[in-house]
Amino acid sequence: MSGESPWEFRWLEFESRGLALRGSAYLPDGTGPHPAALLCHGFTGNRIETSRLFVTLSRELASVGITAVAFDRAGHGESDGDFFDTRVSNDIADTLATLDEVASYEFVDLKNLHLLGFSLGAVVASVVATETHHRIRSLTLWSPAAVFADNARAGGLPGQPDPTIVDGIYEFEGLRLGPGFLEDARIFEPYVRAAGYRGPARVLHGDQDFIPAEYAERYGSVYGEAMELTIVEGADHTWRPLWSRDLLIRETVEFILEHSGSADFEPPQRRSTSNGGSPE
Questions:
Q1: 100-114: per-residue pLDDT in tens?
Q2: What's the pTM?
Q3: What's the CA gap between 34 and 107, in Å, rounded?
């Protein structure tokens, strides 16, 4: 983009469980406070996300007046901690602490908070939406990896039903993972933990995802009529090809903006979202 950007970028650092967590924020132009969306990355991911997916989303949100905050959970990205110690219960604790931090910023409207999660981060976001003391105005789940608990009960990891184990340590995408992750995941009930959130929910999942779409569909039993589900034909877990990523970003920005309470928002005309697909 040439010229001056329609947002302000800030580095963030704060603590959770005695560890420094690091993140970034895209702030809209104009006098705040503004609505804010907290973005939760996936397993082994970081605040940038695959192919800069969270950067793209953050800039789009900031350009329509919504602050976007993304952070690295402990043991991921540039935050303190070791991936070896990763547990979903710790991820939830860190995200709850991060949401408290975000709500304290003077540029954030603490009555206008939104959550979004990708993959395992979607599972984390769904629990945080229930357990936080803040009101969450909207919840968006991309490619929710609720399958991780079933994987763990079968002895596997996300996307790895037969993981490599050396001296009791799991090898996952070039990282060492301790046994605590599976111990934690085996007793985790994603849909039970997500119950309690009563606001609008948007779930988007690709039919070419290695995670079966039924795991996304089952959130309907949690959120009922408050949930809008899109199964996108031809999209995979990381939202390829490019047209599917464009759809993902567009639908997400529209949904968050709609529920941000903006007086200027006019719902766009769009196709039925019961099932997506590539442009004809």
A1: 999 999 999 999 999
A2: 0.91
A3: 6
